[in-house]
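Suppose a colleague, Dr. K., hands you the sequence of a protein chain of 248 amino acids and asks what its three-dimensional shape might be. Before reaching for any lab equipment, you can write down a predicted structure in token form. Begin with the sequence itself:
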Amino acid sequence: MIYIAICDDCKQDMLHLKRLITNIMNKYSVHYKIVEFESGEKLLETPLTFHLIFLDIMMNGRSGIEIGKQIYLRNHQNTIIFQTNYTGYSKEAINKAHAFSYLEKPIKKSLLEEQIMEFMDDKKNKCDLNVCFKNVRSVVGDREINEAVKYIPVRSILYFEYIKLKKEIRIVTDKGDYFYPGTMFSIEEKMQTFGFETSCRGILINLEKISRIKGYTVILNNGEKLPLSQRRVSKFKERINEHLHSSL
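The predicted structure, expressed as tokens, is then:
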């Protein structure tokens, strides 16, 4: 689960931002929780175990930049995104509070989505990222288990495989397999944001799980081999390089 804090002394701005974040997280089926704070002092009273903090700069009492500096001193793992009605604070916000980014109000959904996607694409954040799947079934021994909603950690997924005869998708994880009704188009659109790429028709692979490529075969860290179509070789290798670069 991604824990998100919004700290803003303007209730209207806070509700607007919460609405945008909710729409974006639901779009990508991400498991999340939002906690609201009307002052930086209230935020500092918490253990600061949030993954992502949206912090207004101009607030009553201590400024957002000062609060951000205190957050960074206590927990370097917090990711801070500043927002404000006033221009000219970006350099100070990033340098003094080690902010992830800076957004000007009124916040636009497209820009916010870019920042959230960049945050979620960061390698260290995938450890806490769970994606929602509906109408999932799994088999444990002789027993079939059906779940209306299943949250699966991104880092546990090896690849997705489309089972044509059953018209369902097999989710292969390091803890077992799951099956759910869906299309490859929908799962590709959903998971490419999180570092997955199609190797051939019906196979979508987690790039972090790849050990190497040999000819037209993708070899995973666990030794499993998956096909790589000739026409996708160039793009697939390019995506691996992009992913490795973004993870540095």
